[in-house]
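Recap from last week: sequence in, structure out.
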Amino acid sequence: MMELRQLRYFVAVAEELNFSRAAGRMYLSQPALSQQIRKLELELGVALFLRTRHHVELTEAGQVMLRGARQVLVSVEQTARAAREVGGAQRTHLRVGFPEYANHTSVADILQTFRRRYPYVELEEHEMFTLQQTLQQVRELRDGKLDVGFLLAPLDDDALAFEHVLKIELVVALPEDHLLAVRTEVSMRELADERIILFSRRFHPDCYDYIVGCCERAGFSPNVLQRNEPQLYSGATTYRMVASGDGVGIVASPLVSMSRPVGVVFKPIRDPRPVLDLVAAWRREDASPNLQAFLEVVRELAPTAPDGRSALEA
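Predicted structure tokens:
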């Protein structure tokens, strides 16, 4: 059966006439997008695109399909908007918390899509700059001060429901003159003799334990140079310490796109490859129309995030 997301994928390709650009627009890998288009063509029994190695164009059937798909998507959006207005969604707000680096992930597209699709809902964005603030999101969600929070898992709280959004890869920050700086990637075991600059465990026990656990799985106990300030997302202090030769840092990969500190290089880590889950969290008993509308957008876009993994059940 044809799905709305297939229509959205089709419209993206039809407008871009380029599978790579359309995949980027939809936060989907190009092979996955091509698979969805082929599936749609099989269901319809017609070719929607003429494809060559360097050229894509709509067939006559594709042109008809494009007009109809646009009408369907507009109609669905208008119907959903009217229903939510009747249900009390108009002239209300939604409070969303997220870490600073989420601006460089598909979370930014989720927020933008929700604003565009539901302009009558006032979206309050609460940007968090430290791990400590992120943990405070849990309390603010429980207390009703936030409606949705984007958090690093694992989190153990029966009052909250969770939806996977994307994987956050951790990378190593090295001084530019470090022996490992010329490597394409670094094994975790190669950090055994390094001082690892890490936030204090009290700022996020689960994340701290996960990083230490990755080191232990690689066969060593890390020599942690612990920082007392609650920084992870804004890594300026860590980068200064790395550039000065005090140690190496382990940081979230989206931070790399936020800044290019002088004297510091970033390398992927393998064996094991450390990744954290970024999840959307909300109160289980909250059934408000605005929250449900927001979660629809999360579920629509999260499965098409660059890591290509599908959303988990809440």
